[in-house]
Amino acid sequence: MSSVSPTPAGPALALQAGRAPLKPLDQALAELLNCAALLPGFETVSTFDADGRVLVQDLVSSLDVPAHDNSSMDGYAVRIADVSADAVLQVNQRIPAGSSGQFLVPGSAARIFTGAPIPPGADAVVMQEDCEVVDSGVRIKAQPQLGQWIRRRGEDVASGAVVLRRGERLTPASLGLAASIGFDKLQVAPRVRVALFSTGDELVMPGEVAPADMKPGAIYNSNRFFLRALLLRLGCTVTDLGIVPDRLDATIAALQGASEQHDLILTSGGVSVGEEDHIKPAVQALGELALWQIAMKPGKPFAYGKIAGSHFIGLPGNPVSSFVTFLVLVRPFLLKLQGAVETAIRPTSAVAHFNWPKADKRREFLRVRRNAAGGLELFSNQSSGVLTSAVWGDGVIDNPAGQTIAHGDVVQFIPFSALMS
Ligand code: AMP
Ligand code: MG
Known about the structure:
- It is built from 8 helices and 28 strands.
- With about 425 residues, the protein is of the alpha/beta class.
- Helix 1 crosses helix 6, helix 3 runs parallel beside helix 6 and helix 4 crosses helix 5.
- Bound molecules: adenosine monophosphate (AMP) and magnesium ion.
């Protein structure tokens, strides 16, 4: 079969012939995301364990946060009308956090601590640094403003408000916010079950062959390590199927086995159309495949397909191509499978501290890092095989096709920290 349209809304993904024009990255991403329907079902997890998961429910608050007007300082709650220059007020109540006070009798002050409810009648708090304890009470040394150091009821969350929405990806701060309105459990999308394998007869595993014993032409499998780590960071459960030999029967067997219990089969290598590249015929034997040449660098060859109920994504073999296409295409795909509303990363503007005089006809993702002067420096070797660039760099410049860069130009920067969580 030569096209895939797994969602009714999704456009058919036409198989690109060998010399078809390159597909713009935005178009490839849009088509890919169109195929990523929300996984069925949900999990109920402890709020403690929900970091990074995607909510499938709206969280509506049944209370005001804070629930009472309360003090944001250790000090004295007063009525401002009672305070004149160097007024001394009687202190006849003490309100620590977790307790509540009595009506504040005119002419008196209440000793109060951070977080304690403001007693009825009080309209300001004077911080203890502006007070002096004297025998008869407390001397207020600074005239307070109305409402000073009072945190208002509901100023964080109003009762009835939707605090977090379906499709939001939970962060440490959102777990705290969910807890602040009483949620100890949250309904989240299921984890994406991913089967991962590498193709390539040249690949060997560190630990299995010592560097000194490497045969000519052999290389260590690096993609397996970063792809697995990236998937785990995105909360996927990973079945690591290791290295599959460059043979059609072996590739078919691996794909068929993986398709049963996984939402996504992710492979690296073998997506070009050389005779050693068996991904294309293997996926086509079992399901449907679209093989794209994407106008991006590093990157370009990329495969998307369906095998039984499972999605299939084939990444290029060159390590940096594999790495960047994962970040730019697979990451949003995984988020969309979980129903995440936000899948895109917004780049920030930054200043290039280098020259890039040769424009490329493909959109480039240049490995760069921030320097102490607040600019971006370019790694000297941008080859798609040089993984050092992705370690040295702390992000990429998203450089449009046909664009040169001169020292001082404003460019679009995406930090790896944003792309890897
Ligand atoms: P391929 O896409 O299979 O033609 O591979 C392109 C290049 O990437 C070749 O130089 C491969 O040796 C290399 N490569 C493929 N898979 C891996 C991997 N898992 N780790 C490191 N390099 C790889
Ligand atoms: Mg290969």
